[in-house]
Amino acid sequence: MTAAATATVELVPGSANAETSTIVAAPTVLPADGTSTATVTVALLDAQGHPVGVGGQAVTMSTDAGALSVAVDNGDGTWRATFTAPTSVSPTAATIGFTVDGVPGTATTSVSFVPGQPDGSTSLIDATPATVVADGTGTSTVTVTVRDSNGNVVPDAGPVVMITTTLGSASATTDHGDGSYTATVSSVTAGAATVGFTLSGVAQAPTAAVTFAPGPADAGTSMITATPGAIPADGIGTATVTVTLYDANGNRISVGGPVVAMGTTTGTLGTVTDNGDGSHTAVLTAPTASGTATLSFAVDGTPGAATTTVDFVRPTADVGTSEIAASPTAIGSEPGDASAVTVTLRDSNGLALGEGGRHRGDLL
Length: 364
Description:
Radius of gyration: 48 Å
Oligomer: single chain
CATH superfamily of the largest domain: Immunoglobulins
Number of helices: 0
CATH class of the largest domain: Mainly Beta
CATH architecture of the largest domain: Sandwich
Largest sheet: 5 strands, antiparallel
Structural class: mainly beta
């Protein structure tokens, strides 16, 4: 005979087990901006892997990067906490663990950190070397490092980066794929350049400076002048002769150093003085004969292409310095008695005018 009676057995989970319980984070990737969050959940299981289903246990969570709020008991065998990302991508991820009633859990979860959006104000720009020759071939390498608002390098900036310069020209910008971008700048014009960059066409605040310096002095482009351009041919009049140095591209030399010699076809040139600013001067003294002097120069032994002239003009008579004399100074009243009167014309410096500057007549 078969018994008809039955019995019901309720199977209930065992107590929470730290070795079988699980922990997960969502999302698992956050920007390292100090504000983005992920929800971390611990699900309590018994030793056989069954959900505990009830609250009441003591669960804590910990992280080696970023920040975790206090764990909250959901009352259903799960606990949750809020994870907040740090402001740095170093380390690149956080490992989050937990304990159950003081026993460390076996499982962990992780949240990875990525840079935020590119921020021009925190990005870096550098130019090396800071000074190059303005000859069109010397270059300075400009490097832009794109960073987010917290200073993390952004490996793939997304926006187009272009390096710019206020003087000369910049080559095409190269993306190195690691958050750095480079271009070279060059110029044939001397001066100070401000190099900068744009993100998607928008100019950014950081800049760097590059100085384009003149090249070596070039005799072919350097100039010679004389002031004044005409002086009296009296043996004492002077003009200042100046050689101004330029490089091959016409950039003004602003320092001394090159050896400059000057020459003249007439008159006398004094010692050449290096003024230390790219100019050299000498004093030309007039001869006593009228004419024109052609002045030339050489730079470090190479003859200059330019010349200049100074005219030596016959001095004019000055009534204040000219003289009149009579010999003898006393004569009789008889016919034939005479005195020779001589006028000697002199310039304003008291120098006789030379040929044509003396006039003589007889006083009867």
